[in-house]
Design brief:
Blueprint (H helix, E strand, L loop, with lengths): L8 H26 L10 H55 L6 H24 L1 E2 L2 E2 L18 E6 L7 E5 L9 E4 L5 E5 L3 H8 L7 H58 L3 H27 L3 H6 L1
Antiparallel strand pairs: 1-2, 3-4, 5-6
Helix pairs in contact: 1-6, 2-3, 2-5, 3-4, 4-5
């Protein structure tokens, strides 16, 4: 190497290496202090893209878990109300069986009819008060035009369970039919008068004429028996559908929970700092910085040899 004064090549290379060591040391300090291996796009552009995609999936899954939990609570609310209405239906069936007993007089049968009507009134109250987040759960009617008894069979509630728009759990309107006499929500989701599950039962109870002959009144109560049986069976079918939906959502929730955990683990491997390897890199960077600093000092002293030549 030539002995020159204007350009200290050794000092330039030492300075370059010192700068590189300082940059690597700063990167290690940033990763260790933030807990992230990727703090900006230049750290790992491809890895950042993968991490962002995983984050979108994780956020969607986590919100989907909350949506499903809300939906399970809603279904449980509806089923609890139907269970109460079913108990009243069973009581009406028992009373109708009692009323069909020919040994009863007009006064006893009038008392039975009065209790049945009060039970139907209570069932109507259940249907009206059962709401979730302000949405009526048991008000959907059995008709599309207010007169024809045709189940609407349409998706009433839809739960988004991920960040993919098509990934939903839909709940059919047949699970939310009115358990009372009237339905107030039609097939298009708008207010519309129609028949509830207890419509026929109420009509049969109203038709009882306790002042009629014993044989005729017995037939009236037998008609109520038939209607009460049908009502209880209909509510059982409705509860079964709600139970099926709850099982579906609970299994889906378990799957989404596992998915979120696995995606979080995958994102961690991409974006999080590995403290074992990064602390080793920090120690290496500190040593290199000290060595480069020492060598730069030595390189800066190298031109002094020219003074010796000039003596």
């Amino acid at each position: 190497m030539s002995a020159v004064l204007n350009t200290n090549t050794a000092s330039l290379w030492a300075a370059k290496n010192l700068l590189g060591a300082q940059n690597r040391l700063a990167a290690s300090v940033e990763r260790l202090s933030s807990g992230l291996r990727i703090n900006r796009a230049r750290d790992d552009a491809a890895g950042l893209g993968v991490a962002n995609s995983l984050t979108a999936q994780i956020n969607g899954a986590n919100q989907g878990m909350r949506n499903l939990n809300d939906a399970i609570s809603m279904v449980q609310t509806a089923e609890g109300a139907i269970a109460a209405a079913s108990e009243m239906g069973q009581r009406i069936l028992m009373l109708a069986t009692q009323g069909a007993n020919g040994t009863l007089g007009a006064t006893e049968r009038a008392a039975i009819k009065s209790e049945m009507r009060e039970l139907v009134s209570s069932i109507n109250s259940i249907s009206g008060r059962t709401k979730f987040s302000g949405n009526p759960l048991l008000a959907y009617n059995k008709t599309t035009d207010g007169t024809t008894a045709v189940p609407p069979d349409a998706d009433l509630y839809s739960m988004q369970i991920s960040n993919t728009s098509s990934d939903v759990v839909a709940l059919n309107s047949n699970a939310f039919l009115s358990v009372g006499v009237d339905g107030t929500v039609g097939a298009n989701g708008a207010a519309q008068a129609g028949k509830g599950q207890a419509f026929d039962l109420d009509a049969k109870i109203t038709a009882i004429n306790t002042a009629d002959t014993a044989a005729a009144v017995t037939i009236d109560f037998q008609d109520v028996q038939t209607a009460a049986n049908s009502y209880v069976v209909a509510l059982g079918t409705q509860r079964a559908l709600l139970g099926a939906y709850q099982n579906q959502m609970e299994y889906t929730l378990a799957n989404i929970t596992e998915l979120s955990s696995n995606l979080s683990s995958a994102r961690s491997r991409v974006i999080d700092t590995d403290y074992a390897s990064e602390t080793a890199a920090l120690t290496r960077g500190q040593i290199l910085q000290q060595a480069a600093t020492a060598m730069l000092a030595q390189a800066n002293q190298m031109p002094n040899v020219i003074l010796t030549l000039l003596k």
